[in-house]
Design goal:
40% strand, 9% helix, five-stranded antiparallel beta sheet, mainly beta
Length: 134
């Protein structure tokens, strides 16, 4: 039986500091680089975790929601600085996708980046279904 991956608590937030959170993530970190229009344009690197492993510490009152296309994804932005440090993804409505670029002190060179091809969404989703499981 394979032991579960090690997990570490990471802190992060938006640019102005109003939105702060903690996330309990498997290490070493693996993130998804999605090629859909919004992720590509914002440089979002997805660290998807079960909602139970995400804690919003401050800034709930600063969050602004944006939905498009199917309306399933809840894109949450800081209404002051405009940064989307996390959101509820369409692919994992029971999870949270944290932008790894918004984690405090993260060395992106040490993070494994896995391409996610939104142009072939069904096939790509099959490979990441496990990410929001506790």
């Amino acid at each position: 039986m394979t032991p579960p991956p090690a997990r570490t608590d990471f802190a992060g937030g938006c640019h102005c500091g109003r939105v702060r959170f903690e996330v309990d993530a498997a290490t070493p970190l693996e993130v998804l680089d999605c090629n859909c229009s919004i992720c590509r344009m914002t440089g979002f690197l997805h660290l998807i975790v079960p909602a139970t492993r995400f804690r919003l510490l401050s800034g709930a009152d600063a969050l602004v929601e944006y939905r498009f296309n199917t309306g399933a994804a809840r894109h949450l932005f800081c209404g002051h600085c405009g940064i989307k440090s996390f959101y509820v993804p369409r692919s994992h409505p029971d999870g949270i996708s944290v932008n790894a670029r918004c984690l405090d002190g993260i060395d992106l060179a040490a993070v494994r980046v896995i391409p996610f091809d939104d142009h072939h969404r069904e096939a790509a989703m099959a490979g990441i279904a496990h990410l929001s499981e506790a």
